[in-house]
Design goal:
receptor, EC 2.7.13.3, 12 helices, disordered N terminus, alpha+beta, about 525 residues, binds biliverdine IX alpha, nucleotide-binding, two-component regulatory system, chromophore
């Protein structure tokens, strides 16, 4: 029985997904001590070729060549968590071929073995040639949306998923599907839909920041438990970097509700931050070979680099324009005894900064208005409010939802949903203001974000929501946000104005002598 009462999403964040104690059945896991190379744990599905490994030295189980590579790459004291060794090997008297992906995890080596498919040609495999061609096409894409569409298309061609989404996080960790490439026959589209932060809880995002990809071959798999030497059981086996890690059962339920069986997600990292995910969906189980999984990670990285490049170019141009306008204003100020005139009358004015709809100066209780602003009396009230509420020592203020801080401004959201302010002097007698209009927007969610979590009646169990029906939210009262560098330029300009104010004061003092 499921009640509709929302459950605290913090419950989702408590699941320790890095130590599930089980793996997916397509993989076989052997855990060895990185110092002694003795096997301390393994999954319950160890194939005959590796029979009864626990307590044995790895040397008794693996071919010499593989053992030597493991030692060289993963066993030193300086080796970082997550460093990987990939190899192909044959095991046991029958010389059965296996793919090996081994990695370092603390004082342990985790080695995962997967049977090489009997008919590898049945699976899309991506070699260096395909990857290079795909990266080349990604390089040719211009603009974020085109690059995202290209990344979705290329990733789908390489991995064979029925659908690939490019999913982008916003600053609050809600997400949006900004590109989609899918088979014709799947008449579901998630393109353009938004999803709340709780769909991918904080500990999952933290894990995805460290470990770059996960693949579920068959959503309905039976997890394979890990067993350990009695002594080793005290420290749970950390599967953060394990390819075959068993995923959260809550998330697998979510996939069921979405109609997804085989899946993947690959982290898109921009400037050290989890920018988004490449998400793969398949209606049936879907096996992706280890080499192809690695190729998907390369594509995600190539896309991430393009995003970083485009974002920094755009930012650079915007900053150059602003710095040029600011320095023209500072030159005017240097020639002038009247800062209000210098900022509001020449070829360049305050309105040339920060894509503002309106601007104002407030100086000893008198107001000068430019562009679309609230009326003078309201601007004076805003100045008074900021003078009183800004903490001591702070010289600037910016908000894209000013009425939330100052309800009296609610009638002026058309002109001043966003406010950027910089005080000129420590007494806060002089103030520069920029206003931005409301940008009403609608956000289409994949399901009602206010009830993301359902609790089974009378228990602490959490379940993901079951409906992904389009749900449209209208957002009012907010402008485009001000960037931190824009606040910095406003502060610098206010400082230049302070020089003029001091000069003005001295002049008046001299005259009145
Ligand atoms: C993980 N949730 C995830 C992942 C995705 C999503 C992509 C990464 C795991 C993977 O590779 O499949 C969510 N999938 C989406 C979204 C879209 C999609 C938004 O296709 C849209 C296009 N999830 C919930 C709730 C909880 C929850 C309410 O909705 C908690 C109670 C938990 N999601 C949850 C957890 C994980 C997760 C715990 C981590 C899974 C893991 O890595 O073990």
């Amino acid at each position: 029985r499921v009640s509709a009462a929302p459950v605290d999403p913090a419950l989702c964040e408590r699941e320790p997904i890095h130590i599930p104690g089980s793996i997916q059945p397509h993989a076989h896991l052997i855990v060895a001590d990185a110092g002694t190379l003795e096997v301390v744990a393994c999954s319950a599905n160890i194939p005959d070729a590796l029979a009864r490994p626990i307590g044995q030295p790895l040397a008794a189980l693996l071919p010499d060549g593989l053992l030597a590579s493991l030692r060289a790459r993963l066993c030193g004291p300086e080796v970082e968590d997550g460093r990987v060794l990939r190899a192909r090997t044959v095991l046991g008297p029958g010389s059965v071929p296996y793919e090996v992906v081994a990695h370092r995890s603390g004082a342990r080596i985790l080695a995962e073995f997967e049977r090489v498919p009997l008919h590898p040609e049945d699976f899309a495999t991506a070699g260096p040639i395909e990857v290079e061609a795909a990266v080349g096409r990604l390089r040719g894409a211009s603009g974020l949306m085109e690059a995202a569409a290209c990344a979705a298309r290329e990733t789908r061609a390489l991995t064979g998923f029925e659908s690939i989404l490019v999913y982008r996080f916003d600053p609050d960790w809600n997400g949006e599907a900004i590109a989609e490439d899918k088979v014709e026959s799947w008449d579901r589209s998630l393109m353009g839909l938004h999803f709340p932060a709780s769909d991918i809880p904080a500990q999952a995002r933290a894990l995805y920041t460290r470990s770059k990809s996960r693949f579920v071959i068959d959503r309905d798999y039976v997890p394979v438990p890990l067993t350990a030497l009695p002594g080793a059981a005290d420290t749970p086996i950390d599967l953060t970097f394990a390819q075959g890690r068993s995923l959260s059962p809550i998330h697998l339920e979510y996939q069921r509700n979405l109609g997804v069986n085989g899946s993947m997600s690959v982290s898109i990292m921009v400037e050290g931050r989890l920018w988004g995910l490449l998400i793969g969906h398949h209606r049936k189980p879907h096996y992706v070979a280890p080499e192809t999984r690695a190729a998907a990670a390369v594509l995600a990285d190539a896309f991430a680099m393009r995003v970083q490049e485009m974002e920094s170019i755009r930012l650079w141009h915007a900053q150059q324009e602003h710095l040029a306008a600011e320095s023209r204003l500072v030159r005017e100020l240097a020639r002038s005894d009247d800062f209000v005139g210098a900022l509001t009358q020449g070829a360049t004015t305050l309105l040339d900064l920060f894509e503002a709809g309106g601007a104002a100066t407030v100086s000893d209780g008198s107001v000068r208005l430019l562009g679309r602003t609230p009326p003078a009396a309201a601007v004076l009230a805003i100045a008074d409010h900021l003078r009183v509420t800004l903490p001591p020592g702070r010289t600037s203020y910016a908000s894209s939802e000013f009425a939330a801080d100052h309800p009296a401004s609610r009638p002026w959201t058309d002109q001043a949903s966003g406010v950027l302010a910089a005080f000129v002097d420590p007494d806060r007698a002089h103030l520069l203001l920029w206003f931005r209009p409301e940008v009403p927007s609608t956000v289409t969610w994949g399901g009602d974000p206010r009830k993301p979590v359902l609790g089974a009646a009378g228990s602490a169990t959490v379940l993901p929501r079951r409906s992904f029906e389009r749900w449209v939210e209208e957002r009012r009262g907010a402008s485009a946000p001000f960037a931190a560098w824009q606040v910095g330029i406003a502060e610098a300009l206010a400082q230049a104005v302070e020089g003029v104010v001091l000069r003005q004061r001295r002049k008046i003092a001299d005259l009145t002598g």
